[in-house]
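Researcher: Here's a chain I'd like modeled. Treat it as a single chain, no partners, no ligands.
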Amino acid sequence: MSNAPHSRDESLTHIQDLIKDIRIAMLTTAGEDGRIYSRPMATQETRFQGELWFLTRQDSGKVDEIRHNAHVNVAYTDAKNASFVSLSGRAEVSKDKAKIHELWNPMYKAWFPKGEDDPEITVLRVVVEQAEYWEAPANAILRNFQILRAAVTGGETKVGEHDRVTLDRSA
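Model: Modeled as a single isolated chain. Structure tokens:
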């Protein structure tokens, strides 16, 4: 794990850089029965400032799960560049028309046939409290060399970077 001190702004910028080109994330919620549910979600194209935004259907199971337990996780994977990000926090749902308008993209008509005014559209906001990321060199030859070297040295050689950062201002 990296021990380098990171300001909140530096952490936000680094996370933004890691997730900016990953369109689909996995959102994980907990059901009333304690079961864990994950599903793919399209991340909105907004700058990461400690919040993630999604549009979803009011009648989806995730909305009920979030109302029961707001703790969620959003995971991003960029296998090509060997980076992985796990963001945990609290989710909230709303019918904020201004936010729907801000996030609306005509491609969403596939899920919301009545367009931007579809009564089923619900805004899902995730306020990220903690972030964790892992990244290895994108160059496969270098990455494989570091893995081999770490195996030979008993893990004394770092394969990549790992860090856990708290983003919650109240923590």
